[in-house]
Amino acid sequence: MAGPVDLQILLLLLCVHQCQGHSNENLYQAKDNLPDYSPSKPTRYLLYDVNPGEGFNLRRDVYMRVANLVKFLNEDEPWVLVLPPWGRLYHWQSHEIPLQSKISWKHFFDINSLALHAPVMEFEDYIKAMGNKVERLFYLQRFKGGWTKWEEKMEICDCVEEPRYHQLANGKWRGQFFGYEDFVADKFDCMSTQAYLLTFKPFLMKNITARSVFLDRAESMIHGQYSEWSREWWTARRSMVFAKPLRDIGDKFRKEFLDSDDISDKTELEVWTNMKRNHGDAKGGPYIALHFRRKDYLYAHGKEVPSLEIAAKQVLKYLKKYNLKKLFLATDAPNEEAEEFMNILKKSQIKTYRYRPSIDNLKELKDGGVAIIDQYICAHARVFIGSYVSTFTFRIHEEREILGFKQEATFNRLCGDEEGEECEQPTKWDIKY
């Protein structure tokens, strides 16, 4: 029989997979996706983190890389991916929520859905099962000489830069660890890497005997060539279904203000493993959605960010082309800028809507929850217009590909004042099944 620790972990994972709510009670049945808990194959755990400066939507891409690695590890031995708690991201700046940390994944995503792709568990559940430590910690870094030519290589070596970990008197290693001050690593190494994610599989299976391994700076892992990896990438992406409470809020807003619902819009959600849509299957609600990135983009991508007047002019052309009178606006612009933009459109009899939660709801949802609701509503619009090279926009593109929208209604962006109205539009990334 399995040992007491494995039995405890099994119960924790079963609770994660069977006790999480969903719009349909039995929409996701993930218990068959658990690893093999046999005495000869003790379960192993992969933990990870990302460069602190990376935002919410880039971190979602890194998750897909690590989840695919764990999926392939499970072909030979049982591994569970430990989900890193969310918190303290640059764009989460709401003054009403001074500290946003230790936020679990179930707050934003349907854990049962993730588990249909690879076995996962929350960080706090890992602590309950394995204690406040990880056995091996690898800080992924560049090679000292930088990239000279492309070749896959990995090497445990001296740290190129000062890492964010220090050794305690007892030999353990302490670092940020998502704000859990008592959490430590038994052993720490810097590892220079220039490799695809699959290269980490033999390293973890043959070179490392520890049951728990932590990969920091996991964004260093590379998906692989898109032409070869697109199906695996899309499989992981399709599993990232938003949490039901956030979808419910988005659905209520759509119905109340935008005359939009899944049946009329042909955007009904199914279990993602059974869901296969063609371009044009989705109709979308009778509104246009705009992601209008401002703030730091005015400096980082000033040539590609239009003025409020030019942006409004471009949006009006889309509204006229599709004979629509409603706009949903997702933006990080200061309130006075957003109001000015909306007033410009109002002169043309356009009704503009934003999702603005009450302070109490904001404290409950967190900034990440509000961002997901914005993305969800944008994903269900008849037409979507995004911002230049924005990961927020990219994630909406992907949602709309999954739902089955025509690509000409999805891959659009605003043009900067100097670019003119015929600027280069986003690359179309076809969904693969």
UniProtKB/TrEMBL annotation:
Residues 1-21 form the signal peptide. CDD domains: O-FucT-2. Pathway: Protein modification; protein glycosylation. The keyword Endoplasmic reticulum applies. Its EC number is 2.4.1.221. Keywords: Carbohydrate metabolism, Disulfide bond, Endoplasmic reticulum, Fucose metabolism, Glycoprotein, Glycosyltransferase, Golgi apparatus, Signal, Transferase. GO terms for cellular component: endoplasmic reticulum; Golgi apparatus. It catalyses: L-threonyl-[protein] + GDP-beta-L-fucose = 3-O-(alpha-L-fucosyl)-L-threonyl-[protein] + GDP + H(+); L-seryl-[protein] + GDP-beta-L-fucose = 3-O-(alpha-L-fucosyl)-L-seryl-[protein] + GDP + H(+). Pfam families: O-FucT. Gene3D superfamilies: 3.40.50.11340, 3.40.50.11350. One of its GO terms (biological process) is fucose metabolic process. One of its GO terms (molecular function) is peptide-O-fucosyltransferase activity. It comes from the Eukaryota. The keyword Iron-sulfur does not apply. It is found in: Endoplasmic reticulum; Golgi apparatus. Belongs to the glycosyltransferase 68 family. This is GDP-fucose protein O-fucosyltransferase 2. It comes from Dreissena polymorpha.
